[in-house]
Amino acid sequence: MVRLEHVLDSWKTVREDTIHAVEDFPAAEFDFRPAPDVMTFGELSRHILDAGDGLSGLLLAGDDNFATPDFREKMSKHFRNVDPGPAGLAHALRESMEQRTAQLAAQPADFFAHIITRFDGMKVTRLEMLQMVKEHELTHRATMFLCLRMKGIVPATTRRRMAKQAAR
């Protein structure tokens, strides 16, 4: 059984590493694209923020059908304004996580058991949808880590692992 606390804690960890990637990447290179058909580093960063805010915002608003023609329009109502540049984006990512996890943690247990229709038509609980939001971020964060590696920058997750190994 998946517990809400686990999903929220795991999402916070993923987001913190996303924020580190944004802060570590050279600001002048946010338009870097690892392949022609892939979003730039900056676009990926903003997409993670918007998807997290949009999808969790819809959940919190009680929307139970994400498979509607106006899905993207409804989702965009939950996007936040971001100050320009990487520092503004990192701040918005951090602020978003603090706000959304507090709002989600305040919901009663039956809120998360409610069945919704995902954008692909699949029926899932709100908790399963929240898990998918975290997994979506994790997937895009992997591309961000690839971009870091392509620039010779070691991602925060690897730095932590290396520090633990060195401390032994």
Give a nutshell description of this structure.
The chain is mostly helical and 168 residues long. The protein is 65% helix and 4% strand.
Core attributes:
single chain; 168 residues; mainly alpha; Four Helix Bundle (Hemerythrin (Met), subunit A); two-stranded antiparallel ribbon; 7 helices; globular
Strand order of the main beta sheet, please? 1-2
Q: Provide a count of the helices.
A: 7
- Can you give the mean pLDDT? 95
- Per DSSP E runs of 2 or more residues, the count of β-strands stands at 2
Low-confidence stretches: none
Counting structural domains, the number is 1
Helix and strand run: HHHHHEEHH
CATH structural class: Mainly Alpha
Q: Could you give a short account of the major beta sheet?
A: 2 strands, antiparallel
Q: And the CATH topology?
A: Four Helix Bundle (Hemerythrin (Met), subunit A)
Q: Any idea what the shape is?
A: globular
What proportion of the residues is helical, as a percent range?
Answer: 55-70%
Distance linking N and C termini: 34 Å
**What's the name of the CATH homologous superfamily?**
dinb family like domain
Strand content: under 5%
Radius of gyration of CA atoms, rounded to a whole number: 17 Å
CATH architecture identity: Up-down Bundle
Quickly give the structural class.
mainly alpha
